Amino acid sequence: MIKKTILLLIISLGTSGYAQTSLDTYIQMGLEKNEVVKQQNFDINKSMYALKEARALFYPTVSLNANYTKADGGRTIDIPIGDLLNPVYSSLNQITNSNAFPTLQNQSVLLNPDNFYDAKIHTTMPLLNFEIIYNKRIRSQQNSLQKIELEIYQRELVKEIKIAYYKYLQSLEGVKIYEQALTLVKENQRVNQALFKNDKINRTAVLRSDNEVLRIEANLETAKQASNNAKAYFNFLINRKLDTEIDADTQNETLPDLMLEENTRNREELKKLDLVEELNGNVNKLTQSYWFPKLSGFADVGFQDFDFEVNKQSRYYLAGLSLEWNIFSGNKNKYRLRQVEEDSKKIASQKDNVEQQLLLQHEVAQNNLKSALKQFDAEKDQKEAAKKYNEDITKLYKEGQALYIELLDAQNQWVNAQLNTNVSLYNSWIVFAELERANATFTFKN
Prior knowledge:
By secondary structure, the chain is of the alpha+beta class. It is built from ten helices and six strands. Helices cover 66% and strands 12% of the residues. A hairpin with an 8-residue loop joins strand 5 (294-306) and strand 6. Belongs to the outer membrane factor (OMF) (TC 1.B.17) family.
């Protein structure tokens, strides 16, 4: 019965501990060296720097500004200083009987300063800006999204590594079965040739045995190439040279645990949508912040003078506040807000759909595992029966009580039964890996 053949996962791990340890090592290697994982980590680092950039917007900005102006021509301001003061100076000279007060000329001053410099330290700092606040929150959530994306890919990678590993083990066992079959048919070929020389059988049996040798050799070569392909794909997943040898250990016909409770509510896909929903809420608030005023402060400390003079009069400082408050923008922000609200509705719909998809994925994987286990149970019984049948027919053939075609049929049944059992065994582990992925039960090492 299937209950007798199904072992708990803990027991199966114990009976094939080295294989599981090797697989765990390869999984860890893949999580560290896989190129897509590296690319995902680059994206996480990029989003982390974007978050730090958003945080930096809260700090003051300090810059050194300097300019020098050389001017000639252009608009002027006429100052009639001579017309105003010369009559007064003339009267004073007469009273004092001297020339102490000179005659002044009217002045014409350029509006553009000539030979003028201005060098200052300019500092600005936001005091009230909701856009910066919500931008920082959005950047933080985007960084968290990148981490969840990495976890989703890592779970998928773990599944692919496990499936590739089981398929490689499956291919090795297939090669082993065909090698044993080749030994068997070559022995049949030797026996038939001996019997033909002694006129015990006709030439047809010899030709048929020769053809069987050729057929099994061809199947063996195909199995070897399939094994090489499985090895190359597995090494590709963990970013090693494609022809690198793999520590391969069979499962010794132990089966995975069937009983995995549904745990799809902890899937990263749902966590991602929850976070996207929160992020969209902050985008909504960011859009609404258009209505709020922006207040910032500024301060300048520096020197300005003509002819590069530097003295006490050259020094200056300037400080103040800047207020910006948008009053009207053609309702563009209103329509932008409507777009964000539609995104919120879409995200809510996606959550419901994804929840159903994940439940369906788990249900299908669970049913596939039940089917695979039953199939293995049936194939295992058929293998035992085929083995006994082959042994009986082989004995009868050697005694001359069975035809070669009967022997050939028994041997083919025995080989096919071994192949089918091998396929169903590792298919059970492959389906279990898919169930584990659907249930998000694999635990990552810190």
